[in-house]
Amino acid sequence: MKISQFLSLFFIAFTVFSFTACGSSRDDDNPQDTTPGKLQIKFENGFNNVGDIVLNQTVQTSANGQKHNFSALKYVISNIALIDENGNEFKYNENNPDKGAFIVDQADAVAGIVYLNLDGVPKNNYKKIRFGLGVSQKAYLLGQDGQAEFWTKAKQKGMSWSWAAGYVFVKLEGKYGTDSPSKEFMNHTGNMGNTAANNTPDLYREITLNLPTTARVTGQIRPSVHILADLNQFLSGDKALTLTTSNDMLMGSNQHLVDVTNNLTKMFKVDHVHND
Description:
The chain is an alpha+beta fold. Helix content is 21%, strand content 39%. It has helices at residues 3-25, 97-100, 137-140, 148-156, 195-198, 233-236, 255-264; strands at 37-47, 50-51, 60-61, 67-84, 89-91, 102-105, 113-121, 124-133, 170-177, 183-189, 205-217, 223-230, 249-252, 268-275. Strands 3, 4, 5, 6, 8, 9, 10, 11 and 13 form a nine-stranded mixed sheet that branches. Strands 1, 2, 7, 12 and 14 form a five-stranded mixed sheet that branches. Strand 4 (67-84) and strand 5 form a beta hairpin. It is globular.
């Protein structure tokens, strides 16, 4: 075989191989492949966006000069929605607590992180995430039978009252003081059952966050969305709060806990996204 013929055959074979390899590396971008995927959300609780609060140890000084720490730090996340580049939404088990609600408990953190794992997420490029802090009235009013699994889990985690009162949305417990945390506090936010019938505030809130990097969900790629929760917002948010004997042992939805809730809705931000 002449050298020129050999080189020609070699070039053709190399071109075919390169095209095949390139095609296989782009399987994730195949528009015909609509296989759903998974997405992970990582919550990292901290103060001033410095993560990994250590229960009973990490101390923060509030805007009003009050020192506090946490012995319990828990909150309910529900009604997660992912919003794509065109504004279309994928709602993950909306108003279905058994499948779509989670409890973020700092006591469960692994290296400061609490992991939530979603499956059955449609293949798409997502630019925003929305979630509820607490449980919506629409979900609660489905009744106890409509959320038996999550209700049981909430009871086990200390995130519920009687059914008539409903869920604890956020549980913050610890100590506070001027020079050092020494006096105990307990702030548990949540709705008092049917808010319309009971004429009480609805403390369920929804938060929408932009993703700094597109989350590319495919059958092969499981993005991880890392959310920082700045618990300094508890007392040093839009409304600077001070713990006193009048509000340091409260449960429900009175005005102090409304203020706490409004502060805490501003504590979340997406730090980064990994497309693994």
